[in-house]
Each structure stands twice: as C-alpha cells, then as structure tokens.
Write a structure and sequence with these properties.
The radius of gyration is 23 Å and the shape is globular. The protein is built from 16 helices and 20 strands. Helices cover about 40% and strands about 20% of the residues. By secondary structure, the chain is of the alpha/beta class. The protein has a seven-stranded mixed beta sheet, with helices on both faces. Strands 7-6-5-8-9-19 form a six-stranded mixed beta sheet, with helices on both faces. A three-stranded antiparallel beta sheet has the order 3-4-20. The N and C termini lie far apart (about 65 Å). Helix 9 (about 225-235) links the parallel strand 8 (about 220) and strand 9 (about 240-245). The chain folds into two domains: about 5-245 and about 450-470, Aldehyde Dehydrogenase, Chain A, domain 1 (3-Layer(aba) Sandwich); about 250-430, Aldehyde Dehydrogenase, Chain A, domain 2. GO terms for molecular function: oxidoreductase activity, acting on the aldehyde or oxo group of donors, NAD or NADP as acceptor. This is Aldehyde dehydrogenase family protein. It holds the Pfam family Aldedh. InterPro entries: Ald_DH/histidinol_DH, Ald_DH_C, Ald_DH_CS_CYS, Ald_DH_CS_GLU, Ald_DH_N, Aldehyde_DH_dom, LUC3-like.
Length: about 475
C-alpha cells in the first residue's frame, strides 16, 4: 500500500491484514486496506449499545441534535478531500464531475438539511374546545443497510434524519464499499455520544440478521428488489417499520419537437451519472421517430468523447464498474442485444486498457421491448434507445415495467410534458432532466421499486412514531 492509504481517516477504520478482508481499488484492483469482519455477535452488541444510548440522545431535544448535526456537516467538509479520495478508490467514481467530491458535498448538505427541516405538531381536528394533534416522536433504534453505488450519500440519507428525530442507528455498508461508510461513521462519531451510531462491516449473514432482529424498530434499505422482498419477509416477525428504496428501470420519453441540443447534457448525465450505477438513472429511452436519429447520434458522440478512466485522474468523469458481478451483468445484456440484431452505435465492449472492470460507454439503437437490455435493470454504462411513433404507445411501454422508481419526459412544450408525466407510473417524474434530487423534496418508489419516502418533512416522519393527542 502507498503512504496515502495508511494515514488519517482510512488508518482509523482499517485493521491489520490478518484480522480483516481485503478491499480493492475499483479501478486497479490493488488492495486499499483491510475492512473489519464483524459478526452477528458484534451486531447484537451494537444494537444493545444503541438501545442503551437512545433515551439520553432523544432527551437532548431537536435543537441540540440539530446543533450536533451541523457540527458533523462541518467535520465532513473539513475532511472532504480525504473522504473523496477514499470513496473514489473504493467505489470507482472519479473525483470530478457528479462523482466523489460531489457525493461528499452532498453528504454534508443532506446532514444540514436533516438538521434544519422543521417538524411541528399538526392540528388535524379542531371544533370548539375539541382538538387533535399529531406529534412525531423517536422510534428507538434504526437499522440501516447501505448500497455500494453511492455509499456515503445514501448512508447519510438514512442516518442523519434518524438521528435528528432522536433515534440511534446501526448501519451496515455493502461488502463492496465498507471503508467509505466506516470512514463516514468515524467522522460522525467525533461529535456523537457512544452508542448513538455504530457501523457494522459484516457480510450478507449480518444483513439478514438486521432484517430479522427483534431489537430494531425501523429498517431502512437501499438495494435490489429481490433483497427488498427478503427483508419484508424477515421483518414480519418483529413488525419493524420499513423504508425500501429498491431497483429502478427508469424510462425516459423524448417528445416530438424537442430541441435535442438543448437537452443533450442533461440527457447524457441522466443516463450515465456514476457510470450508470444509480438506482434512479435513466435506463431505457423512448424517442419519437422524427428526432430518433439525432438523439442516438448525439448520445453516441458524447459517449465516445466523455473521459473515462481511473478516478484519481482529475481529467476523468466516468469510471469502472464497481465489481465483477456488475461488470458481468452489463456485458451479458449488451451481448444479448447485439445477438438480437440491435445496433451498437458507441461502445459495446470492455476497455481492458483502462483496467479490469472498465466497460466502454455504450449506446444501443434499433432495439425493442423484450430485449433483456430494455426489460432488465443494467446498472451500468449502456443505454437502449427505443423508437416510437405514438405517444400513447410510448407511455404504455414505459409503464409496462414492474418497477416504478423514476421516469422523465423531455419536451420543449411544458404543458405537453406535464400531461405525459401525469400518466407515467413512477414515484418521481422529472421534466427535461432525470435524477435531480433535492433534500427538501420527498423521494421514493412505487410498485416493485419499494415504499416509504425519504428527504424533507416526509423523510423525518418516516423515521418517527406518530402520536395523536386528543383533548
């Protein structure tokens, strides 16, 4: 390991080789450090400590908890570059663009938003002296299971609102990106009492134990639909409340008359942000006949010219697939599209000269629903572009998926875009962008993309117990 891997925050969260599991650099596959291997016994102890710490943490009140969260956000910002470099190496996303530095900045911003969002008792009935109010109290202990694609940012989405509402948290990072979340927790814990936040870097057995643990009052999970279903089954025994942000196969519809040059940048990054490894990235694009070729050619040119490579190179904005499993999925789906006669306009193959898990930014045209690349979530740098001639047909095809996380409509006519947006089955529908999120705007999926909302007042309520006081 080089000197930079053994100093500062990384040194605080890694263990000796004999005691841990090797974590590779996503781009080079060289070992960054060794993550602790926590067990279900460690989980039991963490939950017990969280349970013991929760009453005192809740008792300090919203004002003091908000002050602590602001101090944590300051700490994140003070250590932003070290956090971003670790994140870039472990997850693979480059430092620049909407990537590692952006993610660390978002972690600080969402922490501040959780601190500052007001949540007051709601008067739901009043008639003379009769009055009913809804108050929002702490639930107790929250178990949070994080994904590998945006490990720091999504961990904050789960942790910060939970802490703000007076809960304590036990968080489990993905096995692929444990160091990033352990580092984030280390920064948080510089300002938190013991037991309020614990990160457990375990395997899938530990994740399954979280889902079924009787000591948890709430489970938050971001990840695949298949795993989300297993969490629902496991949690039935203790009736823990759930927030599930599951997979998405987000559709975009480009309406006739759209100025392609005006939407090109937003369209490209709606697809390829984090090299396509984003739940709410645009995964399948329906384009009207009249501008189909222009959209395909524009995306293909951007795919060929947008810099891809190692994350620590300041010039790159696209990185590798984070892990071999995801690399194999993308390869399989693109190869299947090619075998069906689809036209590979850009990319369509690995880029071994860049590193073992790099796959060229790929645009696939002349493909239809029924192809695996359209029907399955690719979660990587490949977009199928599907031609349509009738808007009603495009809406029906977009809605045919079992998933409903996000969708988008692209048009120069705002009224036409809104009319189509209202007909799309998704938790969020964006107009002339895709995937833009705001810490004050609720976010969550429908159908097999999960349930429950995060962000803003809705997100605070999701990690709270409503109590009606009637008089």
């Amino acid at each position: 390991m080089t000197e930079r891997t053994t100093t500062g925050i990384l040194a605080a969260v890694t263990v000796p080789e004999s005691e841990g599991r090797a974590i590779p650099d996503a781009a080079t596959r060289e070992v960054i450090g060794y993550a602790p291997v926590h067990t279900t016994d460690d989980l039991d102890r963490a939950i017990a400590a969280a349970r013991a710490a929760q009453p005192a943490w809740n008792a300090i009140g919203h004002g003091e908890r908000s002050r602590v969260l602001h101090a944590i956000a300051d700490e994140i910002e003070a250590n932003a570059e070290e956090l971003a470099q670790l994140l870039s190496r472990e997850q693979g996303k480059p430092l620049n663009g909407p990537n590692a530095r952006f993610e660390v900045g978002a972690a600080a911003a969402w922490t501040r938003a959780a601190a500052d969002t007001p949540i007051e008792p709601e008067v739901v009935f009043e008639n003379g002296p009769a009055r009913a109010e809804v108050h929002y109290d702490a639930l107790g202990v929250v178990g949070a299971i994080n994904p590998w694609n945006w490990p720091m940012m999504i961990a904050v989405w789960q942790i910060a609102p939970s802490l703000r509402m007076g809960n304590t948290v036990v968080t489990k990072p993905s096995e692929y990106t444990p160091l990033s979340v352990l580092a984030l927790a280390e920064v948080f814990n510089r300002h938190l009492p013991e037991g309020v936040l614990t990160a457990i870097a375990g395997d899938r057995e530990v994740g399954a134990a979280i889902a079924a643990h009787p000591g948890l009052d709430k489970i938050m999970f971001t990840g695949s639909t298949a795993t989300g279903r297993r969490i629902v089954e496991s949690s039935a025994h203790n009736l823990a409340r759930l927030t599930l942000e599951l997979g998405g196969n987000d559709a975009g519809i480009v309406l006739p008359g759209t100025d392609v040059s005006a939407i090109a940048q937003d369209l490209f990054w709606g697809v390829f942000i984090n090299t396509g490894q984003t739940c709410a990235a645009l995964k399948r694009l329906y384009v009207h006949d009249s501008i189909y070729d222009e959209v395909v050619d524009t995306l293909a040119e951007m795919a060929r010219t947008t810099p891809m490579g190692g994350g620590l190179d300041e010039g790159n904005v696209l990185g590798p697939l984070q892990n071999e499993k995801q690399f194999d999925i993308v390869t399989r789906l693109v190869d299947d599209a090619r075998s069906r006669g689809a036209r590979i306009v850009a990319g369509g193959e690995p880029a071994p000269e860049l590193g073992p898990l790099f796959y060229r930014t790929t645009v696939v045209a002349d493909i239809e629903d029924g192809a695996a690349l359209v029907d399955e979530e690719q979660f990587g740098p490949a977009i199928p572009v599907i031609r349509y001639s009738d808007v009603d047909d495009a809406v029906a095809r977009a809605n045919a998926s079992e998933q409903g996380l996000g969708a988008s409509v692209w048009s120069a006519d705002p009224d036409a875009a809104v009319e189509v947006a209202r007909r799309l089955e998704a938790g969020t529908v964006w107009i002339n962008n895709h995937g833009a999120i705001n810490p004050q705007v609720p976010f969550g999926g429908i159908k097999a993309s999960g349930y429950g909302q995060e962000f803003g007042v809705a997100g605070l309520k999701a990690v709270a117990a409503p109590k009606v006081i009637s008089r």
